[in-house]
Prior knowledge:
Layout: E1 3-6, H1 14-25, E2 30-33, E3 38-43, H2 47-57, E4 66-68, H3 72-78, H4 83-92, E5 97-102, E6 118-122, H5 127-136, E7 140-144, H6 157-164, E8 170-173, E9 183-186, E10 193-196
Parallel strand pairs: 1-8, 2-8, 4-6, 5-9
Antiparallel strand pairs: 2-3, 3-7, 4-7, 5-6, 9-10
Helix pairs in contact: 1-5
Protein name: Threonylcarbamoyl-AMP synthase
GO molecular function: double-stranded RNA binding
InterPro entries: DHBP_synth_RibB-like_a/b_dom, Sua5-like_dom, SUA5_domain
Amino acid sequence: MAQFFSIHPETPQSRLIGQAVGLIRQGGLVAYPTDSAYALGCHIGDKIALDRIRGIRQLDKNHNFTLMCRDLSELATYAKVNNRVFRLLKTYTPGPYTFILEATSETPKRLKHPKRKTIGLRVPNNSITLALLEELGEPMMTSSLILPGDSEPLKDPYDIRQTLQHQLELVIDGGFCGTEPTTVIDMIGDEPIVVRKGCGEF
């Protein structure tokens, strides 16, 4: 049965943030608000939790997973970023954008696209998410909370708890945060390509 924390969207309670991160470190799955929509998150090093996300969302092996990062310096640890890419990232972060970039050796192999060796990365503009990342001290593996057969993410934390209460350890109620997933931008080629249009203007 998932725990349910109501966390203030602008001034997150440090006690609840600490408890949430404790659950993540123990292998728990959390549904949490971002600057685009609700998402699923787990510890970057937890293979079992990652497989559980695959099961909930029915994702195949070619899905590009995303690392939620605190800032650009953390992002650059896990992706190869040249000057051109860095300038674009600086313009659009923090914000509701996921960038597909070539992964570095710091990125766990199971998170990379099996053929392209890419990883999705993003820096959110959401106080709860940033508080979780700050307490965690490293990126969080994340995926949009879009269930099989749905075209949009789940948006109501009470609906999330009712639907997934036996598959998650925690649902964070951070209020309404939007109904669209991030805009996904592939940065591998010479020019950026929007591969999914979401709530970010690009």
